[in-house]
Amino acid sequence: MRDKSLDDYKPDVTLDSHSEAGSAPTSGSCGKKCSSRPWCNSFVYSFQSSVCELHSLVFHSQVSKNASDGMATFTTHIDWCRREEGFTYDRVTGLCWKLMEERRKWLEANASCTAQGSSLITLDTTAKKDIVIRSMAVNPDSANTIYIGASRPVDMWDTAWPDGQHDFHWVTGQRLDTIVDREFWAEWEPNNHQLIQNVIGLRNNQDGGYLLDDMPGGYLRQYICEKRLP
Ligand SMILES: [Ca+2]
Description:
InterPro entries: C-type_lectin-like, C-type_lectin-like/link_sf, CTDL_fold, Pan_app. This is C-type lectin domain-containing protein. It comes from Batillaria attramentaria. Residues 1-34 are annotated as: Disordered. By secondary structure, this protein is of the alpha+beta class. Helix content is 15%, strand content 25%. The chain has 4 helices and 12 strands; from the N terminus they run αβαβββββαβαβββββ. The strands form 2 sheets. Strands 5, 6, 7, 8, 9, 10, 11 and 12 form an 8-stranded mixed beta sheet that branches. It is elongated and about 70 Å long. The two termini are 34 Å apart. The structure holds calcium ion.
């Protein structure tokens, strides 16, 4: 039997071999059915009976409480990451992000994200870098450089940093280790060219896709906002 607490939540739609014209749903087709319905936030699939349940409810726990009966709960879209506002949700990492097509200076870009309940994106894990960089690469209209949420301390922007020196922090406060994930940086970066490169962006290297680069914050550039779980 299913977990009693899960049983309290009736699905909005139940799909089985009868409703699917004799073809039993798979976990994959169940997920696709959910993704294609704007109201569907979670799906529950039984690997034993091949029944697919679509829920408008959000299950923040993505794993079934009772795996022994073959039921698994999946969340496909959760309400703090709103697709209708243009955000994209990655179920694996929980990343909720949006590429802003308009161009702003870095400080104004971050303020614009804040006004939408988000901030400039922090690519502070390899998984997040992978998702964002690969997504940018498959979109041919992506701009050449895009601001993300890392900078030198803002009160130090007028200070001429010695060439090559860096003290980058993510907008969430953590110091950015430029040694870790070296493969995500463009060659020779960060280089603090002309001693005014106070922020970090994604730069399209054409051959190598998008890579990290330090750059001036005063250019007008597209930017990426990230919404974090409240
Ligand atoms: Ca640079």
